[in-house]
UniProtKB/TrEMBL annotation:
SUPFAM superfamilies: Periplasmic binding protein-like II. It is found in: Cell membrane. The chain crosses the membrane at residues 271-295. Residues 1-23 form the signal peptide. This is Ionotropic glutamate receptor L-glutamate and glycine-binding domain-containing protein. Gene3D superfamilies: Periplasmic binding protein-like II (3.40.190.10). Its main location: membrane. InterPro entries: Insect_Ionotropic_Sensory_Rcpt (IPR052192). GO terms for cellular component: plasma membrane.
Amino acid sequence: MLNKASDFLCWLVALFLSPLVKDKELTTVSMGIFEEIILNILADKMKFTYEIIPPSDILTLGYLQPNGSWTGTTGQLQRKEVDMCVTTSAPASSKTPVQDISYPVVYVDSAIVIPFPKEETKWIVTSTFKNKEASTNPTLKKIADNMRKHPERRILNAFTVDDISTIVKEEAALVLVKSTAESFIENSYKINKECRVTLAEKTFFSRPQTFSYPKHSPIVKTVDYNLLLLQQAGLIQYAEKRSAVPYNRCSVSEAKKIAANKVVPLKLKDVAGAFSILILGFILSFILLFIECIFKKMSTK
Ligand SMILES: *[C@@H]1O[C@H](CO)[C@@H](O)[C@H](O)[C@H]1NC(C)=O
């Protein structure tokens, strides 16, 4: 394909998730498989190689500083240090001046990570989100308002902690993309060997997730066109399935099911009856054998 995009032989790509970011020091969460699959298909089809440049300041999408500079991957795009950011994110109007966004790659549900399994806490927390108008977005607005009211409670390093249960404490909830939350929970389970956090049963507000480019990037059109082709070919769904956590063992309903079907190990007293019948049988057959021997001896005389 001869077009603008082929001017970039090696694209510099912003991303902060492993396994694409191979440096184990940088991030501990095992996400990024979805991005890796999509990026590799794009690179293969559009004939480019790429180099991953993680943001050097903060391993997130970044936030706006008072002087107008962005941090994180958005900062990389603003400074035009990279050709593209492949960490999928929800488009934010606040970033429009510094980045262009791609065709929606996936739609994701937001989920709420809560401590496990405090049922009462669960319902108090989720009731705040009971607004069901998912298309308009009062839920996110409410959350955003809350975050503005309590900026000190914002967690900027959620992606870089080993164990999500260390930041989701009593009376607190963390709103995350569902698949991301499931990865965190799986990670936490592996570390603690128990479920310390879980997801509130209901998800809310399905949102499009996009890649992003520096403002007025020449590659937007071709990449978008190829993303559309990938979607029509079912490759996006394939990547989603490949990268999903197989099942959430810390889901409350799952845990209940496991408890209900729990296999109780057999104890000696459960099988004592069988053993006593067996022993009785041995004794009886021994006596019979003995009697038979006596009769045989008597008849041969
Ligand atoms: C904006 O502020 C940050 C930190 O306060 C600084 O690192 C950055 O260089 C500043 N940007 C500009 C364009 O002055």
